[in-house]
Design goal:
The chain has helices at 2-10, 13-67, and strands at 77-83, 86-96, 99-106. With 126 residues, the protein is of the alpha+beta class. The protein has a three-stranded antiparallel sheet, with helices on one face.
Length: 126
């Protein structure tokens, strides 16, 4: 008679174990899914940032290559560069004695800034 009472107390115990395992499995799956989603989102943001920066980096590179030919006639000097189908304004600024800063930004629509020259003068501006 004691054996039957012991069996009655254990009835449904397997169901509780299965429900606990399912709960743990779903918890771990949700954590893994969240981390994977964040990883994919971060990769997409980095890719978009690299695509966005490509045009301005190309414009700065063109400005630096132009600086190797000489010095701009004025400070600041601004010219336009076409890169990736978009127009960028490259600005040269005399920071200190012989040090120049080169920056690039997207040109506003309808901007009429002249394109960069092919070379600069060899003498620095006064």
């Amino acid at each position: 008679m004691n054996a039957k009472i012991g069996l009655r107390k254990r009835r449904g115990f397997a169901l509780i174990l299965v429900m606990g395992q399912i709960t743990l499995l779903l918890f771990f799956w949700s954590v893994a899914n969240r981390q994977t989603g964040q990883l994919i989102q971060t990769a997409e943001v980095l890719k978009l940032r690299a695509e966005r920066d490509h045009g301005s980096l190309t414009a700065v590179a063109a400005g630096l290559a132009l600086m190797e030919t000489g010095f701009p006639s004025t400070s600041p000097f601004t010219g336009s560069v076409e890169s990736d189908g978009r127009t960028y304004l490259v600005t040269f600024t005399d920071l200190t004695d012989g040090t120049w800063g080169v920056s690039a930004s997207r040109a506003p629509l309808g901007d009429t800034t002249a394109p960069l020259p092919t070379t600069f003068a060899m003498e620095p501006p006064e």
